[in-house]
## 1
Amino acid sequence: MDIYRKGGDSLQGRYHAHRLHGLSVGELQKTKSSLVPGKEIEFPGKIEHDLLPALFQFGSFPEPFLKQNNRGLRRWQRERMDRFFREDVRDLENVRDLSSMELLASMLEDRIGSLLSLQSLREDLEVSHRAVSHWMTILERLYHCFNVTPFTHKAIRSLKKAAKVYLWDWSVVPDKGARFENLVACHLLKMKHALEDQEGYRIGLHYLRDAGKREVDFLVTAEGKPWFAVECKTANRTPNPALNYYGERLKIPYLYQITREEGIDTFDGRVRVMPAGKFLGALPSGRVMWAVLRWQ
């Protein structure tokens, strides 16, 4: 619907567009979030059911998540990509070398969370830079992947252009650390779109990295100002020093390090280390996907 509405007549003032995402921790827990941009996040006291392991393994798309069957997941992933290239891309875009574009999509699975180099992709595929750039634009426009750009500020020597790429279906990412980071990126993007589409705020999603290679996975901004930063760790209770570094220089009010480990929730005065399920469960989602499932 988002693709087709760009070529139709303007209906300004007669409808509101809501970007539809997959299932999330907050939506599955039916969390009622009153999150206000710029304010501290209110976290639930106790989580009865930890939904993160199932989401981590089966992804956020309803069919494989509800079935939770490894054989069904593999078949669904293969059939989804076949339909994506043989129907969506073929019908909506003019791509001559479809096989090379399919190879590009598969190569992205091993580059999650890393700085994306179009030059490196061009050399591996042996095609022009223009072709790779065009294919990446198509993959983004058709909701196969999305980019997270670096946050630039005069207080830090930040990167200017290099983006990170993440997939809408994180279940295909082979590396567990990268898959966890991708899962968090999708939850933050869903929060960003919910606050923009439903509340009208301007929310930004970035990462932090400077010339000294100090890096924090995500920075969320509200109305152009830093709101909170998030570092993802599969199993590490020691806060990343880069969180304090950027927190001081950019005056980031809230700093979080989330982990897949359970039973930890500490605060050293600046950085709060907590389970990912508890953090992600507090993010607003709008519960749009469940409404669609009930309607179907």
## 2
Amino acid sequence: MSVLIAPNALRGAVGAVSAAQAIAHGLRSTPRPPDRIDLCPVADGGDGFAECLVAATDGTWRRLPVRGPLGGPVEARYGVLRDTAVIEMAEASGLRHVRIKDPLHASTFGTGELVRDAIAAGFRRIVVGLGGSATNDGGRGLAEALGWRFLDRHGRDLPQGTLALLDLARVEPGPPLAAEVVAACDVDNPLTGASGASAVFGPQKGADAAAVERLDAALARLAAVVAPQVATVPGAGAAGGLGFGLMAFAGARLESGAELCLQTVRFDERVRGCDLVFTAEGRVDGQTERGKAPVAIARHAGGVPVVLLAGQAPAEAELKGLYAAGVTAVIPLAPGPITIRASIAQTRELLADAAARAWRLFAAGRHK
């Protein structure tokens, strides 16, 4: 029997490549392991997106110092895939770079520096993965790194910080970009409103209810001045509104990060003839159905059963949407109660054990 292992990264615990290796280890530890195991780590625009594409294409990395989300220097990298630069915005502007979350002041300027460097290096196609952000600035920082100016009604440059956008009167565009830009997105949220960047993702970045309201108002002002029609595009709210920023300031088009990744790793070709697909996700919730890798995998599996190993999963009654989308089973990593800290520390072992449990059940059914 043949198994395809296509996990997402489990944020804060293991990357997609390590997750795939752990699952494979678990399958090989069983009395009757699969005859063939194919490791196919995936991503949907968030953590590990660039790593997966670089690994799938034998690409390379380009590294440079940039401005981190709160202004300090960070070392960032982006992938080089022949004529394409693959930038993961979290490399420069992600939560991994902050000790204290501060969405009121965090900036995507460093991501803009990566885009600027890729253009200067001669890349004519740039793919930006959206996810894992510490920011909520609507792409203002990225735009400033690309030469845009944000001015108040007196023609003065706005001070730093997302809330300064409340006083935005007009913008002065930067120079045209000599590259096609693609924003690889894993959600379908608009920029503002109840399902927008601030309301849905702001609390994860440290925003309380009052801060969410002010951030949403600031992004609404940004959209009103720059591109009102772009604010409602599904995905504009991704990565703290960087989806909006890339469309408005870099002329980007939004694509599903999961679909782009599956195409790059040749998933449709590799799943043919398989008996079972394993995928994995750190937290399974309502967002999983809205553009995350497990659903894209189920859609492309062509009827092959798909087992989703989940670090955190809701009650069975809340999984109906995933099952309707084609996921065969959701298996929590921990067989019993466990703290989040312990779960993160033991993620590789838990992945291996959960995969082994699932495989034993599947193999038993096939050998009746």
